[in-house]
Amino acid sequence: MLRLVIDEHPTTHPTSRREFLRICGLGGLAAPFVGSDPVAAATSPNSSGFGRAKSVIVVYANGGQSQLETWDPKPHAPAGIRGEFAAIPTAVPGTLISEHLPRLARLTDRYAIIRSMSHDDLDHGSATYLSLTGRFHPRKSSNPLPTPDDSPTHGAVLKRVRPTSRFPHSAVHINGPAFVPLIAGPGQSGGLLGREYDPLVLGDVHEGAVGLPGLSRQPDVPTVRLEARKTLLESIDRFTQQLDRGHLIGDVDGLYTQAYRMLASPRCRDAFDLTQEDDAVRDRYGRNRAGQACLLARRLVEADVPWITVFFNQNARGQDVEPHNTDSYGWDTHNDIFVAMKNHLMPRFDLGFSALLEDLEDRGLLETTLVACMGEFGRAPRIAIERGFAGEAPGRKHWASVYSIVMAGAGVRPGSVYGASDAIAAYPTAEKTSPSDVTATMFSALGIDPASHYRDGLGRPFAISVGQPISGIY
Fold this sequence. Notes:
Blueprint: E1 2-3, E2 14-15, H1 17-27, E3 55-60, H2 79-82, E4 87-89, E5 96-98, H3 102-105, E6 112-117, H4 124-133, H5 154-161, E7 171-174, E8 200-202, H6 223-240, H7 247-264, H8 266-271, H9 279-285, H10 289-302, E9 307-311, H11 337-362, E10 369-374, E11 378-379, E12 398-399, E13 403-408, E14 417-418, E15 420-421, E16 428-430, H12 435-445, E17 453-455, E18 461-463
Parallel strand pairs: 3-9, 3-10, 6-14, 7-8, 7-9
Antiparallel strand pairs: 1-2, 4-5, 6-13, 10-13, 11-12, 15-16, 17-18
Helix pairs in contact: 4-12, 6-7, 10-11
């Protein structure tokens, strides 16, 4: 029996010959890399913002948020480029954003805008994979299905290198999984690290009384009965360990352990209960899927969850299926961009995202929470009808050459604008930045050197990030 040594965390499992050959077949390896020396997450005290954050919140604009209609308007460009929306002044003199983000305009002195994001992946699935893992998918500009050998999502890597002891899950995805648009895209799971490293995924949390109803202790199941059930399960597991044990049973072990930790912790159960919030607070975030997801993200920060991803919105282009349901709208606005953004997308985004920033600051949490609002790419400079997509009015097609994101908290210099695009928001003209750099920045903020490595189940080392922290935003 071959035992794979992974790293300092006690997550190793004996691997059978059958399972060993299966994994080697997936990875194309003749033999695994076996070793006992952990590749630790080294410190990097000279990095700007290093170690400032206890938590990271990613607000993911699923579908590709148009930079021209949000963070990088071009009021002096020709009408066919600048679009229908006006640009308005903000709390930072000289910085303009869209007229349909009035609340966020008043908060520009609390966040940084990065206007020089750029890459060359032009489809939702693979570009989402890039954004949520920091690595290009092998099939660039495609919509691939998730596979077991995908790169792990950010939160899975965090659990691998520094799992939290204060909460059963190191990473939680809210209002997920992200559909891109017809399938749940790759890059949202533990990937090659295994199911044990999957983030906890919550769907719609705005309608029910509790974000995770299964955590409510049943009155007819006292603690002693719950412990008896756990003991029985452990006995069954010991028996199965004597059989040909593969990853499937090992993954289930980890999921059971997490479930029992959550059931046993009142603090954990309470974190998901949005009914504990005042009605005025819930109203401030917006009584909708994405708004309440942002509120739950703040509650999870208070519960010491180190990585939270909010999908704003769940479906990249749900308006094709449910055009009368605002909650279904995503940022993939090939056609009808101005109606979709003005009436459906931007009011809720302006309300929910501004509430999150204000709430974190008012509670003293923004100093130790890095917030990143980003999508997989932006939208094309030129407005046009795109054949093959729903809608009768013009929109903008996918555009990854330049787009904008926002970052706040944990030492990020508020009120700053990093990088720049050209006169029509088509290409970066200064400080070109990649999703890999964003990945490096987020891990660095948590005090983890992005140049360090983790090991997969075969002992193969993988760099946490292939990018560099964005020091200019600090």
